[in-house]
Design brief:
The complex is a heterodimer of chains A (about 80) and B (about 325). Chain A is built from 3 helices and 4 strands. Chain A is α+β, with helices and mostly antiparallel strands. In chain A, a hairpin with a 5-residue loop joins strand 3 and strand 4. With about 325 residues, chain B is α/β, with parallel strands linked by helices. Classes of the chains: A alpha+beta (about 80), B alpha/beta (about 325).
Chain lengths: ~80, ~325
């Protein structure tokens, strides 16, 4: 079980609700950072992912290591939350 | 129903865009058990389009994501099941068709191919290198990163113009590079006129290279076809909308016949060269690449599938 999950989203991104639905289906809690409403946090999203895109999902594991998943990518998201 | 360990369905629809969702509304209302396999987002390209203004029933237009969500909910209300997986191949095994996905095999009595297309790459230096770090194909996903920045949009069709207009809500200025002339609808061209302070259109201008420095895009180099000279556009990012690439690679070796650009050939019943395998929407050779026509084709395909399944259960005796 991850210690913490943060998803960086925008209001118009179609793939962002897909990630949220996926995590909801797994019964996982997450924090959402909407970059339209919080543009000052874009640099943070870029630094974490190296990508200028959303969704970005940051999974903090029990040992405090982080997995960063760019986009709606179940092949990477599934092992990240395992 | 299952055959050994492999689950059997009445219909498997590959893709969950407008064509498949429309088809699923029809099949499920006929009590034909239907599952849709989607590798991305339900609604496909429609879901990542900012605004859809030419789909009937919405006098003020509708957000692409909202339209896609509505279609999905309507199909699910009648019992359509959407599973998120990627189809790797299909094989006609006579009575059933085998569908191999990243999550295993399934069998179906009939298949609808409705995988649509993705935005095409232009294949210039820098495009792959800066993908998602300055080069983008989805304005609604990535536009917010370019607040008060300069952008280049490549393309002259409906998508390029529509998305360039969408990006004006973030960008300080946009250079629209059009290889020949604007091919967008008259309505969109008139709309584009309203944004002439923010969008500069460069006709007959090719896009030759995307150049970065220190891991960031700094400019696009093109050629003016009128003067033959190189032209440069300083920019923070590039959005590319130059046409569509069919999602049909998984059909290699399936026996389903494709045309010269990789679109699926069908007859007037929307049946492919393999009996029991149908195609609808943007993936179909001859499709008009419109959401309205995709939903129409989906409905037609569903009725043809119903006839096919009825004939399969009750073959005509001569």
């Amino acid at each position: 079980m991850p210690k913490n999950i943060t998803i960086y989203t925008t209001s118009t991104c179609a793939y962002c609700p897909m990630v949220k639905k996926y995590l909801d289906a797994k019964g996982l809690q997450y924090d959402e950072v909407n970059l339209d409403q919080n543009p000052e946090r874009q640099a943070e999203a870029l630094e974490l992912s190296g990508a200028l895109t959303v969704p970005i999902t940051v999974v903090t594991k029990d040992d405090d290591t982080k997995a960063v998943v760019v986009g709606y990518n179940l092949a990477k998201l599934a092992p990240a939350i395992a | 129903m299952s055959d050994g360990d492999v689950k059997v369905h009445d219909v498997i629809m590959i893709g969950a865009g407008p064509a498949a969702l429309s088809a699923a509304i029809y099949t499920t209302r006929e009590d034909i058990e239907t599952v849709l396999f989607e590798k991305g987002v339900p609604g496909g390209l429609a879901a990542i389009t900012d605004k859809v203004d030419n789909y009937p029933g919405f006098p003020e237009g509708i957000q692409g994501l909202e339209l896609a969500t509505n279609m999905q909910q309507q199909a699910e209300r009648f019992g359509a099941k959407i599973e998120f997986t990627e189809v790797l191949s299909i094989k006609d095994e006579g009575e059933y068709k085998r569908v191999t996905t990243t999550d295993g095999d399934r069998l179906a009595k009939a298949i609808l191919i409705a995988t649509g297309s993705d935005y095409k790459k232009i294949g210039v230096p820098g495009e792959q290198e800066y993908y998602a770090r300055g080069v983008h194909y989805c304005a609604t996903c990535d536009g917010a990163f370019y607040r008060d920045k300069k952008l280049v949009v490549v393309g002259g069709g409906n998508s390029a113009v529509q998305e360039a207009i969408f990006l004006t809500r973030f960008a300080s200025h946009i250079d629209l590079l059009v290889r020949s002339k604007i091919r967008a609808s008259d309505v969109l061209q008139k709309e584009l006129e309203k944004y002439k302070d923010k969008i500069t259109v460069h006709l007959n201008t090719t896009t030759d290279e995307i150049v970065g420095e220190n891991n960031k895009i700094v400019k696009v180099i093109g050629t003016s076809k009128e003067t033959g000279k190189s032209v440069e556009f300083h920019t923070d990012g590039v959005f590319i909308f130059v046409g569509l690439d069919p999602n049909s690679k998984f059909l290699e070796g399936s026996g389903v016949e494709l045309d010269e650009v990789g679109l699926v050939k069908t007859n007037e019943r929307l049946e492919t060269s393999v009996p029991g395998i149908f195609a609808a929407g943007d993936i179909r050779s001859g499709a008009t690449m419109q959401i309205a026509s995709a939903t129409g084709e989906g409905a037609t395909a569903a009725l043809m599938i119903r006839e096919y399944l009825e004939g399969r259960e009750h073959p005509i005796q001569n």
